[in-house]
Each structure stands twice: as structure tokens, then as C-alpha cells.
Write a structure and sequence with these properties.
The protein is α+β, with helices and mostly antiparallel strands. The chain is built from 3 helices and 5 strands; from the N terminus they run αβββαββα. It has helices spanning about 5-15, 50-55, 70-85; strands spanning about 20-25, 30-35, 40-45, 60, 70.
Length: about 80
């Protein structure tokens, strides 16, 4: 699976225990996402576009409206990309 460098960095943070938090406006539309590392730092590479690509490929998912976490498919994509480098 082809995964861009930005997506790999976001997946790497999620694999280490990070989370993606979503922010919505008063109409319920997604306006901003924030990728937070386990230490509490915010990753600037995680844009709305990168988030949508990861979600579309089912590399991340949310359970019961919680923060987005990496899925098994995301872990496989992360491990598979490290073998090719």
C-alpha cells in the first residue's frame, strides 16, 4: 500500500500511543484535526487532508465518538513501509 511520508509520520505517532482529536463547528462540520503525541505535543503535519486520506483508507478509526486511533490495517501499512526502505 502506498503511504505518503506525512501519513507515515502520523501513523508512527499513533502507533506510539498518540491520538487524533477532531474539532467541529456549531453546524457539526469538521473544521480542524489535531494529532497529539503521548507526551502532549501537537504534530503540525496532521492536516484535514491527511486525516481524510487515512480515514478513507481505513488506517485510523474512532470508537463511540472517541479520538481516532490506528487500526490493524494501519499497523500493517506502517510495518510494510519500513521493510521497503
Amino acid at each position: 500500500m502506498n503511504v505518503s511520508r506525512k501519513e507515515l509520520r502520523v501513523l508512527n505517532v499513533l502507533a506510539q500511543g498518540g491520538r487524533i482529536l477532531k474539532h467541529k463547528d456549531e453546524n457539526g462540520r469538521l473544521t480542524h484535526v489535531a494529532c497529539v503525541t503521548p507526551e502532549g505535543w501537537q504534530l503540525s503535519l496532521c492536516t484535514l487532508e491527511v486525516f481524510q486520506q487515512l480515514k478513507r483508507r481505513k488506517l485510523i478509526s474512532s470508537v463511540k465518538g472517541g479520538p481516532y486511533l490506528i487500526t490493524r490495517l494501519g499497523l500493517q501499512a506502517l510495518c510494510g513501509s519500513s521493510k521497503t526502505r
